[in-house]
Design a protein that fits this description.
Translation Initiation Factor IF3; disordered C terminus; alpha/beta; 2 domains; Ubiquitin-like (UB roll); 8 strands; 4-stranded mixed beta sheet; single chain
Length: 178
Amino acid sequence: MASKNLRINKNIRVREVRLIDDEGGQKGIVPTEEALKIAGEAGLDLVEVSPNANPPVCKLLDYGKFKFEQEKKSKESKKKQKAVRLKEIRMQPKIDKHDLQFKTKHIDEFLKEGNKVKVTVRFRGRELAHKELGKDVLDRILDLLGEDAYNMDKQAAMEGRTMSMYLSPGSKKRKRTN
């Protein structure tokens, strides 16, 4: 229920509504004027919770409290969500063994943090004639990472002058070791 598009009290412009009281009990189909009168006597608001139903469903509740609870729930759900970021590691096809291990260590750290990683091999000049070298570099990275460390989102493919692949964290929950 989005609280922005809910109609309350006098804004409800239909002849009759299906009324639900503040305890959740069904009152049946009631003329709108009578429902407003019941809400006024109880000191509550008449809120249209299901406008597409025939007749629309309205509930007796304290609208201010209801709105507060909805905002609280949405904030709570946002706290539980973790934003996955895309990290990128760039290298060249003629990368040295130690540099490759160093960059692979960074890729592993990013995956352990729960981020996705784009691994890119950039070709310059005549290197473009030897695309197999870039593919070998990406394969060595996968070997160094180990199979349980990652899920392959996108296989190695050429995009202009670069060859890239996308990795996401592995299916097993791995703890970060410091």
